[in-house]
Specification:
The protein has nine helices and eight strands. By secondary structure, the protein is of the alpha+beta class. The chain folds into two domains: 71 residues, Winged helix-like DNA-binding domain superfamily/Winged helix DNA-binding domain (Arc Repressor Mutant, subunit A, Orthogonal Bundle); 169 residues, GAF domain (Beta-Lactamase, 2-Layer Sandwich). The strands form two sheets. Strands 5-4-3-8-7-6 form a six-stranded antiparallel sheet, with helices on both faces. It has a two-stranded antiparallel ribbon with strand order 1-2. Helix 5 runs antiparallel to helix 9. The chain is elongated and about 55 Å long. It starts with a helix and ends in a 5-residue tail after the last helix.
C-alpha cells in the first residue's frame, strides 16, 4: 500500500473512533460512510480491522458498531496518566464529603470541556456524563469557569467556532448575553450553570491555575435544583475556591 494510502487509512480509522466516542451510541456502516464521505467498502474494511483488534465491536442484533473494550482500556489509561487528575481525586472526595454533591474536574479539549474526573455524591442526582465525554463550554459551569479566564486571543476562537447550541431552554445562546455572563464570572470568581446543560441540575464551577498562572482546568459541584439551591451558590463557591487553590498549589502555582 502506498504511503499516502496508509496515512489516509489511519486518519479514517481515527475519524471512525472519534465519531463512535462522540456519539455514545451504535452507528452503522451506511451512516459512517455518509458522515465520513467515504465508500461503504472502505468503512467496512476499517471496521473489520478495528474489531479484530478490539477497538470496536459489532452488535449482532443491529449489526451496528460501538467502541470496543480495547478503546475503553486506552481511554482509562490516558485518564489515569493525567497528573492533574491524580492530584485532584482526594480533593474531589473532600468536596463530596462536605457538600453531598457530585464533584467534577474538567479540562479544555478541542474547544469543549472534557470531564476527566468525577465522584458522585451519596444522594445527589446522577449527571450521566461519562468520563472523557465532552460538553459545550458555554453551557456548563466547568466550561464557563475556564472560558471566562482565558486570554482574549485564546477565548475568541472558541467563542467564534461555537454556535451556542441550546442544550436546554435555559442555555445562553446569545453571544452578547454570554459575554456579559463571562464578565460577571470574572468579577465574582466563579461560574453557575442554572439548568443550562442538563434540566433539573444546578452546578457551580471555579478555575484551576497551573504553574504559569494560566487556567488549566476547573472544579465543580453539582446536584439537583432542590439540593443545590440558588442561595447556596456563594457558599459552595467559597468551598470550591479553597479546593481550587489547593489543587493549583499541587500543580505548581504560587500566589
Amino acid at each position: 500500500m502506498p504511503k499516502s494510502d496508509s496515512v489516509k487509512t489511519v486518519k479514517r480509522s481515527i475519524a471512525i473512533l472519534n465519531l463512535l466516542a462522540e456519539d455514545g451510541r451504535q452507528v452503522g456502516v451506511i451512516e459512517l460512510s455518509k458522515r465520513l464521505k467515504t465508500s461503504q467498502s472502505t468503512v467496512y474494511r476499517i471496521l473489520s480491522t478495528l474489531a479484530a483488534e478490539g477497538y470496536v465491536a459489532q452488535d449482532p442484533r443491529t449489526e451496528k458498531y460501538h467502541l470496543g473494550l480495547q478503546g475503553i482500556i486506552l481511554a482509562g489509561a490516558a485518564l489515569n496518566q493525567l497528573e492533574i487528575r491524580k492530584q485532584a481525586i482526594s480533593i474531589l472526595e473532600r468536596l463530596v464529603a462536605a457538600t453531598g454533591c457530585n464533584a467534577s474536574l474538567g479540562i479544555l479539549y478541542q474547544q469543549h470541556v472534557m470531564y476527566v474526573a468525577r465522584i458522585d455524591g451519596p444522594k445527589s442526582a446522577r449527571m450521566y456524563t461519562p468520563l472523557g465525554r465532552r460538553a459545550p463550554t458555554h453551557a456548563t459551569a466547568l466550561g464557563k469557569a475556564i472560558l471566562a479566564f482565558l486570554p482574549p486571543d485564546e477565548a475568541a476562537p472558541i467563542l467564534g467556532a461555537s454556535k451556542l447550541v441550546a442544550c436546554t431552554p435555559h442555555t445562553i445562546t446569545d453571544p452578547a448575553a454570554l459575554a456579559e455572563e463571562l464578565r460577571r464570572i470574572r468579577e465574582r470568581g466563579y461560574a453557575v450553570d442554572r439548568e443550562e446543560f442538563l434540566a433539573g441540575i444546578r452546578c457551580v464551577g471555579v478555575p484551576v491555575r497551573g504553574p504559569s498562572g494560566g487556567v488549566e482546568a476547573s472544579l465543580s459541584v453539582s446536584g439537583s435544583v432542590f439540593q443545590v439551591r440558588e442561595g447556596d451558590t456563594e457558599q459552595l463557591a467559597r468551598l470550591l475556591q479553597d479546593a481550587a487553590y489547593e489543587l493549583s498549589g499541587r500543580l505548581g502555582y504560587l500566589v
